[in-house]
Amino acid sequence: MKAIGYLIIMQMKNRILALKRQPAKMIGYIIFTLTIIGLIVLSIVVPRDSEDIKLADPRIIYLALVALGLFFLTIYVGSGLSTGSTLFSMSDVGFLFTAPISSKKILLYGLLSTFGRSLLSSVFIIYQVFNLRFNFGFGSSEIIALLAAYTVMVLIGQLLSIAIYLFTNGKPQRKRLVKTLMIIGGIGLAIVLYITYIQEARSIKNALYSVADSGWIGYIPFGGWALMLFKGLLEGHVLNIVLSTVFFLGTGLAVILTLASGKADYYEDVLVSTEYIFKAQLAMKEKKTTVHAVANEKNRKRVKEGQRLKGTGVKAIIQRQLLELRRRNRIPFINGYTIMASLIAAVVGAKAGGSTGAAFGMFGFLVYMQYFLTLFNPLSTEIKSPYIFMIPEPARKKVLAASLVSFIKPCVDALIIFTVFAVAGGTDPLSALLLAIGYAAAGSIFIGLAIINQRIVEGQPNIFLKAILGILVLVFIIVPAVVFVVLTSMILDEQYVFISMLPFSLYCFLVTGLIFLLAGDVLDKMELK
User: Distance (Å, rounded) from C-alpha 53 to C-alpha 75?
Assistant: First the structure.
């Protein structure tokens, strides 16, 4: 155990000493720490129980915690069915797996390391301290309880992923059993939610609040357990705390005892996951966007004749991107985001009743989501690929071809999403068309931003400064478009307010064209970095 303690101390020491050679990272850590301290101080200064402050319903947090828990459950189960999770890094494999140290002590080290990483990952909740205190009236005890529930979910979730991997690895029947149980659980939950929706006079809000107040929700794995723990700590219900702790610790102890019993060789079981995560981190550092798991005969797919490239020049770029889309989705350009956004549009359209504010609010939210999706579009990958430099075509023509598929995607999404919004009663067809054009225009300007970032931001070696520069470029380009919408909507009558999308769309398309004209030769300037 002394060797493991020495390893932990030296790792911490080396990380601190490394900051001397990385002043930009040190500045980033200082700003990060000061931001957290400032938020905490601000939350203390703001009055908590003032009569002038209308507090939000805490059931919103309850539902968010349950949704987050169910999301984690889905992610960790899926990970367990594929590569599993891991408690170690590749350096741990090199140092500890080959060392003459008890496997149980190494397992304890892995658990402590994972707990530390889980605790660090919960820092994002601290950024919500002001929001939780000002809008929900939460104090330090509630925030600590929320941190505890989140940390336990992440820690036990990784152990659950390992357990599922041990249970299903190399056994297709067991994998089908786990998938079937997940599907049955999801269908059962959907049926209960629908029955509650009917009982609450078809009110989604009342149905969700009724579910948050119900006792059965606390027995749903992860999400319900976390809610039971959180509410138990908040309200002082000892039984809830004990039950949720038993559920979480029982799951964790079952995995730990299995690993420590010697019946499962966890060295070999976690090595695949450790190697996979290491390759993913390495790919991120090398600016690659995809990582291939350990290949086997089952994962290999025969390439059909119709799935081979036949075009030449820039046509090959477009054809390859279309082939990749068809291999990922049965219907090109329609994926999970399209379905999710359409469902949001249907709900908002049904509840808004033609409200202009609701329509613009949904539009703004979808454009916000679209920005983050555009960060991972094919263009960002294509212009970093060495093959595009070998095509004997002008740089602007190659960049335009590489961005074509990225532009078609928001156009298809806009057509589907806002058609659903209009059918649900959110607005009239003409206004929905204007919103769809605005959404597609926002997609085009985000594609232009990918080119600008490649020319201006990508050469910056520090990730923190790169993020700051990227945000500044985004604000500089997108703010005038927002100003056009606000000014135009103030002039127009309410029934014609959606016409304000026209100057927004025109600005976005013009700026995108200007970006391609001025910075489209980015491939010719790559060596300058």
Answer: 38
